[in-house]
Amino acid sequence: MGKDLKEKDAQEIGRPGLESAMNEKPEIIKSTYKGSGKLKGKVALITGGDSGIGRAIAVHYAKEGADIAIAYLNERKDAEETADMIEKEGQNCIKISGDLKDFTYCQDLIETVIKTYGKIDILVNNAATQYVEEEFSAISIEHLEETFRTNILSMIYLTQQAYQYMEKGARIINTTSVTGYKGHNELIDYASTKGAITSFTRSLSAQLAPKGILVNGVAPGPIWTPLIPATMTGIEDFGKNTPLGRCGQPSEVAPAYVYLAAEDSSYMTGQILHINGGIVVGG
Questions:
Q1: Which residue, 12, 20, 141, 218, is the most exposed by fewest CB within 10 angstroms?
Q2: Is 257 known to be catalytic?
C-alpha cells in the first residue's frame, strides 16, 4: 500500500466507509478501459453503488451504455461523486438512500427504479458490512444480526422484489467473497454470510433458469475499498499474502461484472468468478 496509509484511518473513516475520506483513493476505472456498448439500453441497480467496488461497477456499466440506479446508506458525498462520474459518460443516474435491512426500503427502492426507468435489467447485490473480532465468543448478537441482515437477508428481500419485473435475459449478480470459500479467522460471521451468498446464487439460478434470468456471482479477494480502513487495522499489509503480493483495486474487479451483465455470458448461470490475486479455492 502507499505510504499515506495509516492504521488511524480505521478510526477516522466511519462505517460503512467514505471513499472521499480515504488517504489513498481506490482506482475506479483504468484509463485504458474502452466501452463498446455491451449494455446499451440496459438499466442496472447496484447496491453499495456509492463507492469501492459498487462505484467501479456503476462507472463501467455507464461506460458500456447502461443507465444506473445506486442504493446507498448515508454516504451522500460519495453517491454524488459517483453520479457525476456516470453522467460524464452520458448516462442517467438516480441515487436512493436508505437501509437495505428495512424490507419497506427494499420495496420502495425497486418501485423507484421502475417508476424512473420503466424496467430493471441488471441487479447487482453488492452492499455488505463486516466486524473484525479476534475471539469467536466475543462476537456480539448485535453485530452478528447486523452482518447477516445486511449481507444476505437484505439481498434476498431485494431480489424477491426485483425479479418480478425482470424479463428473459435479465441478470442478477451477487458479490460474495474469497472468505466464503477459504474462511477467515477474524471474520467468522462475515465469511459465513458470504458462503450463504454463494449457495443463494446457485439455488436461485436453478429456479430462475427456466425464465431465462441468469444468476451469477463474483468472489473478490482483498480489494482496496472504503470498508477496509473503516473496519480493519494493520492495513499497510492488506493483500500482501496473495500470490500477487498486493491488494486489488475496484478497477480490476468491475470488468467481471460487465462480463456477467453482458450477452457474452449468455450460457453461464449459477457460477462464481474469482478475482482474488491468485488465491486458489475450490468451487
A1: 141
A2: no
Show Cβ contacts of residue 146 under 8 Å, excluding neighbours closer than 6 positions.
Answer: 101, 129, 131
C-alpha cell at 53: 467496488
Q: Which three cell numbers stand for residue 146?
A: 447486523
Rounded Cα distance, 169 and 182, in Å = 32
Single-letter amino acid code for the residue at 134? E
Do 28 and 63 contact (CB within 8 A), yes or no? no
Q: How far apart are CA 15 and CA 90, in angstroms?
A: 31
Residue type, 84: D
Which cell goes with 232? 480493519
Give per-residue pLDDT as tens, 198-238.
999 999 999 999 999 999 999 999 998 876 766 666 677 78
pLDDT tens-digit map of 90-149: 999 999 999 999 999 999 999 999 999 999 999 999 999 989 899 999 999 999 999 999
Half-sphere CA count of 202, side-chain side, radius 13 A: 10
For the chain, how many structural domains are there in total?
1
Whether residue 28 lies inside any domain: the answer is no
Note the pTM of the prediction, 2 decimals: 0.91
- Measured distance CA(170)–CA(269) in Å, rounded: 11
* Residue 139, CA distances (Å) to 135, 193, 233 in order: 7, 14, 17
Range of the domain at 263: 37-275
Amino acid at position 144, single letter: L
Instruction: Pick the catalytic residue from 157, 190, 257, 259.
Output: 190
First to last CA, the chain: 30
